[in-house]
Amino acid sequence: MEVEILSWLPPRSLVRFRAVCKKWNSLLNDKSFVNQHSSRSRSQFIFLTKSKTYSIDVDLGGAGVGPTIKMCEVASDFPCQPMKWENINVASCDGLLFREFLRKGVAVWNPWLKHMGLIEFKEKDFYFGGVGYDSNRPKKGYQILGYFCRVDDTCKKGYDKFAVYECAAKTFKFIDSPLRKWSLWSAF
């Protein structure tokens, strides 16, 4: 009965229940509970500004109740400001936010639990494009899609190569693409 009730609560309320007892804390970390909770939860949006992060909850109403929009500031230390000469590439998947840091890796942030980590790549010329997972697999493993942009020693020729980074295995799978070497001078 507890599991059923907890699976209907919003994520922000669940965070508070971690401290109630060890049983609930382990339940909230259980993948089957997380999947059950995710399937029932209403869509929410995360809005990032240069200095603040907001959660936006949209309820379309129904049964005589009008639609509502609630916006709450989320306390975070998620780095959303761009560094000098850098564009921000932010993607989301299952309520997690992924943000690229050129030549460093991808930061992963859970806004509800306020946990953050960094996925570092050995290959520093990998550029983040997006994130997802293969829903046909029994166990969910996040995958990061991106590309390599390399330049030769003479700085005259470079190439792009697409790849998928498997987060669990920490390995790249390369994708055949029609891209070929290109001349840097042809861009000017």
Automatic annotation (TrEMBL):
Residues 1-37 form the F-box domain. Pfam families: F-box, FBA_1. SMART domains: FBOX. PANTHER family: BNACNNG10540D PROTEIN, F-BOX PROTEIN CPR30-LIKE. This is (rape) hypothetical protein.
